[in-house]
């Protein structure tokens, strides 16, 4: 009973050491030997112990295969042991890449080619190194599949008119998927939507027919308004016979202003009949 209890305690201690990132006895011995080696060869080993990272970079340090701290080092100078420590540089600057054109079948069964651009950056250097093999390449592949999945739920009209909403939906999905990788997706934009040539011709013909129909309706409305105006004018002229003569003189003045060589001047029938009696 005592042996079993002791064995259980040893197992629990080993698990606790593994969770807390303890190096163990052999690991500490190697670290001590490495430190002694650095001290003995101090003038030479100093060039291997001090490292520098830029303002936009961070260093994730591994000591005997374990991450030494929950926070990345940098920017500036930091210290490592040359024999037991290694480090990986992580760039924190925003990275942009083009999504290759994707052949997508929309919700209303129309095949279109869509491409876009994604902007992202590393928000957690340790997660981007420890949780994924290649965070940049993985984000690029995920962006392509996310573009297909999001646009597959949209019809053609929504795809052409609601690009901002589609980009926001893609950004949300990508940001949630890459959160465990230490990646922050800042922006997604849809660059171009290419339609098949037959569909382009059909849409152009539909738009042209719609414009012609609107033009005919507008012309008909203009004719109707003009006829109403002429009717009202004829009623006004009918109330005063002299108004017709004034309108006739105004028409002659307009014709004379155009420099025509011949002007036809019709006479009223009552005047002609007066001369015919004589």
From TrEMBL:
<dbReference type="InterPro" id="IPR001107">
    <property type="entry name" value="Band_7"/>
</dbReference>
<dbReference type="InterPro" id="IPR018080">
    <property type="entry name" value="Band_7/stomatin-like_CS"/>
</dbReference>
<dbReference type="GO" id="GO:0005886">
    <property type="term" value="C:plasma membrane"/>
</dbReference>
<feature type="transmembrane region" description="Helical">
    <location>
        <begin position="27"/>
        <end position="50"/>
    </location>
</feature>
<comment type="similarity">
    <text>Belongs to the band 7/mec-2 family.</text>
</comment>
<feature type="domain" description="Band 7">
    <location>
        <begin position="48"/>
        <end position="207"/>
    </location>
</feature>
<dbReference type="InterPro" id="IPR043202">
    <property type="entry name" value="Band-7_stomatin-like"/>
</dbReference>
<keyword id="KW-1133">Transmembrane helix</keyword>
<keyword id="KW-0812">Transmembrane</keyword>
<keyword id="KW-0472">Membrane</keyword>
<protein>
    <recommendedName>
        <fullName>Band 7 domain-containing protein</fullName>
    </recommendedName>
</protein>
<dbReference type="Pfam" id="PF01145">
    <property type="entry name" value="Band_7"/>
</dbReference>
<dbReference type="InterPro" id="IPR036013">
    <property type="entry name" value="Band_7/SPFH_dom_sf"/>
</dbReference>
<dbReference type="InterPro" id="IPR001972">
    <property type="entry name" value="Stomatin_HflK_fam"/>
</dbReference>
